[in-house]
Amino acid sequence: LLFLTSGSQSAGGDVTIVAAPENTTVVAGESVVMECMAAADPTPFVSWIRQDGKPVSTDVIVLGRTNLLIPSSQPHHSGVYVCRANKPQTRQFVTAAAELRVLATPSISQAPETISRTRASTARFVCKAEGEPAPTVHWLKNGEAILSNGRVKVQSSGSLVINQIGLEDAGYYQCVAENSLGMACATAKLSVIVREGLPSAPKKVSAVSLSSTTVLVSWERPEYNSEQIIGFSLHYQRAVGTDNVEYQFAVNNDTTELQVKDLEPNTNYVFYVVAYSQLGASRTSSSIVVQTLEDVPSAAPQLSLSSMTPGDIRVTWLPPPPELSNGRITKYKIDYCTLKEADQVTSIEVGGNETQITLYSLHPNKIYKVRIAASTSVGYGAPSEWTQHRTPDRDNQTHVPFAPTELKVRAKMESLLITWQPPANHAQISGYKLYYREVGPEESSDESPLDGAEDESWDVGPIKLKKKVKQYELTRLAPGKLYEVKLVAFNKHEDGYAAVWKGKTEKAPATAVDPPVQKGPPLPPVQVYAESNSSTSIWLRWKKPDFTTVKIVNYTVRFSPWGLKNASLVTYYTSSDEDILISGLKPYTRYEFAVQSNGVGIDGPFGSVVERFTLPDRPSTPPSDLRLHPLNPYAVQVHWCPPVEPNGIIVEYLILYNANNTQPDDMWTLLTREGNIFSTEVHGLESDTRYFFKMGAKTVVGSGPYSNVKDVHTLREKLSDVLDIHSVTGIIVGVCLGLLCILFCMCASFRNSKQREALPGLDSQAASNHTYYHRSRQGVAAPSATLDSHELESLMSPLPEDAPVPLGDITELTEVHSLIHTSLPEDIVHGKRK
């Protein structure tokens, strides 16, 4: 890729690129310079862009003023780079482009993973490689090359698929990617799991060919665990060849024979049987090979006609390919007649090993129709299309070249390889002219344009070839189409007689068809597994049943909350894949799932139910039924019920309270209680105060919303609440001490009164009380009492003898005296008087 263009407004080569970039191929890691030098007056401005519109990589360096330097080329540098030279202050420009190709050794971008599979299941290894040139991928097992066959397939993407795996498939698989620079390899291991209790392999497998397309296969039930069998699968493929497709039938557990139809005639097939239980598949039975019966050929040989003399036609052909002969060709039959006498057909039979025959005693310059049919031991197949040929003119045979001999055409899918030999008078020819055309079904029996002058009747031709050329290949043809080829020799005077061939190109290979299966409902999927994805979604995964009776086109998933009886709340989803993410579920809720396989126009039963909880979440609602009850002026009883939507197991309840409900939550007092408690007492409150409460719940995920605020008024404080037992005890003790003090003072007062009676100058009232005072002191004239009286007198200030006693003192003394007599028990008073 290298081109130069100039802008439409450039004038007279004012701007020219004197050194354009060149197409370059380098190996990754090498440096490369993309050179571009331009000339103009003034010096032009040179810039670079990528043709694909991507930005030029940042690690590309501008070398000098116009060149690009890539110090270490990598695959992402590959592309077409465009150098543009602009003349300053004008719109004149010129461009040149070149392609940079960076070669890279292969690298494995996605390596196969080690897997374990049960017997009779499918193993898939994915391997993707990168490199330049693009690497080819092939596989090895334990170091030996793997060839595609019915069970083992190497897909065009590079993936390896192994169907109906057995113990012999266990081992190490290597993905090898190669190109011209090197190779890369990645390895994965396949382990085959065999469960206990599986049925043994089916016994005595036999096969009998009933016709060219039908085989009857029969077998006996396994020797062990036969009662657990739920079905059989019959597998078959061609016995020879590579890249064969393996087909399978699924049959019920009470069936031990099956007719396999739509086979190819005269073809060897290999058959084996597998038994299935709920636990899995048995070992494969012993294989048996059987050949279908022969049939008539599916296609006729393709003819070539030429003439050596005016009175003969040489007929040559190639045997039908093996896939179309349907057996061993035993003979051929050639039919021919003149064009005008179509009802007078002459037939000749030749042996099956012949490939040519000459028809003699024909009329010169006549158009003949010829066709051929091949036969096996069963009979003749359909004949070929009529091919027309004109015999030479007897009068012009000295000057007209004869037709080329031994015209043979090897038909391929998109080409025809033509070979021939020169005619008898080859010294007179100057060369050959080749014509061909596609023949439509409506004109297959019409007269062909046999003369070389009628060039307009042929799609292509004449193609002139030198006289020494003896083969030519026509290409770009359509597969499975009927073509007619004409080859003539010519000299300097005129064209010679034609050699004609008519036949079909090969058909395009049929796309892989699904294995034929018998009618019946498909079995449900196996290995159904539910996995919690979030609090509102669950992944449901399953695998296609190991064998089935119809082609499965999709699956139906049924799910509902566990134990639900209302059918209107059951939900159904359809999935074409083997997994589905079910969303919109409730947190921490138990759901049950079942999956159904669906065929074309037929649905199977739902499989066994699997159950799964969604993950927990924060509670959606606060605790319900919050109730507050004051216990005393300093405590409140709090009752509540769990949230309506807990979304998980409640691990803790949160109680917030405050006397001021306008403060933010972080200013409230927080109490926590375990999730299995639904009442508590809150102490330490103030009396006669309005408190506000609200509650929240908490799961392992976090806290939910708080409830609405509720208030409670604590009780007012009473006197009985103030005077408790300690206070009452203190009062009693204080009163008793006070009474003792009063009694002591009264005793001291009486003693002083007695002494004053003895003193002169006491008034008559004091004297009149002398008798009483004296009487009161009888029996207590102890020394201590006398000492106390002296001490008391020493504390009292002396009064003048004639000082009158204040009336208030007398009255007070009288009151104290009376108080003593009234407050003391009677027995105590009498005791003192004694």
UniProtKB/TrEMBL annotation:
TM region(s), chain numbering: 728-750
CDD domains linked to this entry: FN3
Ig-like domain residues: 13-95, 106-191
Localization in the cell: Cell membrane
Swiss-Prot/TrEMBL keywords: Cell membrane, Disulfide bond, Glycoprotein, Immunoglobulin domain, Membrane, Repeat, Signal, Transmembrane, Transmembrane helix
PROSITE patterns on file: FN3, IG_LIKE
Topological category with respect to the lipid bilayer: Single-pass type I membrane protein
Tree of life domain: Eukaryota
GO biological process, one term: cell-cell adhesion
InterPro entries, per database record: FN3_dom, FN3_sf, Ig-like_dom, Ig-like_dom_sf, Ig-like_fold, Ig_I-set, Ig_sub, Ig_sub2
One protein family per Pfam: Ig_3
Residues in Fibronectin type-III domain copies: 201-295, 297-394, 400-511, 524-617, 622-717
SUPFAM superfamilies reported in the protein's UniProt record: Fibronectin type III, Immunoglobulin
GO cellular component: plasma membrane
Presence of keyword Transmembrane: yes
Presence of keyword Repeat: yes
Family in the record: Belongs to the immunoglobulin superfamily. DCC family.
Name of the molecule in the record: IGDC4 protein
Gene designation per UniProt: Igdcc4
